[in-house]
Every structure is written in C-alpha cells, then in structure tokens.
Write a structure and sequence with these properties.
341 residues; 2 domains; 20% strand; binds 3,4-dihydroxyphenylalanine
Amino acid sequence: MNMKATLEEIRDRAKEELSKANAIETIEELRVKYAGKKGELTAILKQMGKLSPEERPVIGQLANDVRGYIENAIDSKKKELAEEKLKKQLEEEKIDVTLPSDVSPIGHKHPLSIVLDEIKEIFVGMGFEIVEGPEVEYDYYNFEALNIPKDHPARDTQDTFYITDNIVLRTQTSPVQVRVMEKKKPPIRIISPGRVFRSDAVDATHSPLFHQIEGLVVDKDITFADLKGTLETFIKRLYGEDSVVRFRPHHFPFTEPSAEVDVQCFSCKGKGCRVCKNEGWIEILGCGMVHPKVLENCGIDPEEYSGFALGLGLERVAMRRYGVDDMRLFFENDTRFLSQF
Ligand code: DAH
C-alpha cells in the first residue's frame, strides 16, 4: 500500500473509532494508539526516509495534516464528553427551589423568662438597674449581714443547703442587697433576679430550686410612701390598672417595718374562689423599710439614708399569670407544656 493511502486509512479509522468513543479513558487510549510516540503515525513517519525526494514533502505535509486532524478530533471529542458529563451532573443534582422546605420546630422563651422579662421591663421603666449576685454565697451575706445571726429563729424557716460552715447555696436574693450597698453609694435603685435554693421536698408549690426578684432603693428621705407608690405602680403594670393592692403587717429580720403585699384575686374580684383558695386575696411579695442595722452593716449611715426592699417569687407570679397549678411543670421541660406559651 502506498503511504498516502495508508495515512488516509489511518485518518478514517481514527475518525470512526473516535466517533464511537464515549469515555475520556478510551479517547486517551486512541491518542496513544495513533499520535503517541509508538503510535501508528509515528511509525509511518519513520519510513519517510525510503521515499523519493519529490514524494517526501507531499507525504510529510499529508502526515502533518492527518496528525493535526486526529489531535483536533481528540480535543473536541474530549470537550464534548466533558460538557456532556457536566450537563448530566447538573441534571442529576438539580434542586427544585420551589419545593416546600422541612420546617424544624424553633424553640421559644420559657414561661418563667417571659414573666421575668416583663417584670424587668417594668422596673427598668421606673429607673431601676439590674444586677446579679452569686448563687453560692457566704453565710455572712445570706444571713448575718441581713440581721439574721446564727441563733436567729428565721434561719429555721429557710432550710439551707450548706456547702461548708460558712458557705451556703443562697436561700434568697436578699444577699445581693448587701453586696450592692457595700460597693455603691446611694442613690441606689436596683432589682436582682436569680436562682435560690432551699432544701424543700418537691410538691406542687415547693421546689429546691426556684427564682426570686429582689428590689432595693436607698437614698435620702425614702419613706414607706415611696415603697407603696412603687409597688402599686409595679403591680398595676403587671396585673392591670384595675388591680387592688393591700399591705399586711409582717416580719422580716432585715426590714422594719415589714409588710406582705396581696393583690385582690383577679379571678373572683375578692369574692373567694379556687384560684385564691377562697381568701379573695393573693399574696404577691414581701417588703419593708431597710433595717437600720443592715444599712450600718453595709457602711451606710442610717441617720442620713433610708431605703426600702422587696422580694418576690417568680414562679408564683408565673403560676398566677398562666393559671398553672403545679410548679414542677416549669422545671420538667416537657415540650407539651412549654409549647403552650
Ligand atoms: N428574702 C425574703 C424571703 O426569701 C423575701 C423578702 C422579704 C425580701 C422582704 C425583701 C424584703 O427584700 O424586704 O422570704
């Protein structure tokens, strides 16, 4: 066979085989087979020496054309396959953005947080600052400085978790009063929400962990009228403008005089019902004028300054607000309960 015919035959065969190839690897094999160092074209070119000087440039030109043709064909076939592959991939990985999404449930605030935020907002609106104190507290701050010495009967009413002889889990948020007064000169106007601990057996109205909100105002000429005004405003904002408030004499070691504050039952308007246990009134908080001894313990001169304090239980407020009659529900984190708020 003459070389021209051989070259043309190689070109046609390469074209035919390439058209059937459908994988990048196959194309690579074809490239080696035809245009590689040991390929058919190279083998032909090695025989050029046998040609006559007239034939040599003609066949040389043709051989180059065939090589160029094959290489081009290989390149475009490769491109074509790559494009096909990409197209297929895009097709397979197509995302239908119009499909409805899976809705994962989103959490929300705990009922205690909802009520606490509301209470904070009311006090902040009246110019109070929010401060926090430690949950593990010295006996001194939790009791001693608050006018509750070691032998004081009031200690019995607050079943205390002792860590050591003089370190306790705070039984009330009142120690924050002392910490604030030690550090800051009057005027003082703070509330301090937080966890408190008592070694109580768990039932519908008792838990070893619950929350209180402490309030403290100290300045010149603070009187019981300021206490009454502040608390009435607070309770009306919390329970509605038509709430009726009552102060009852009480005793706390760290206030003198002391009082407990009741709000007329909003369920029966004072007639007596299940919510108020037929009393007509619901106890909301404890309060009083800061005892001169407590001021003195904190380095504040009771001749120059006076103040009032208050303490309220967050769970109680939340229970009444939402008609929850078992405090344990707040701590069990059962989503069937929590999702209702
Ligand atoms: N610390 C008291 C308690 O846990 C509550 C309380 C009563 C706080 C009167 C006060 C207050 O600041 O003035 O029972």
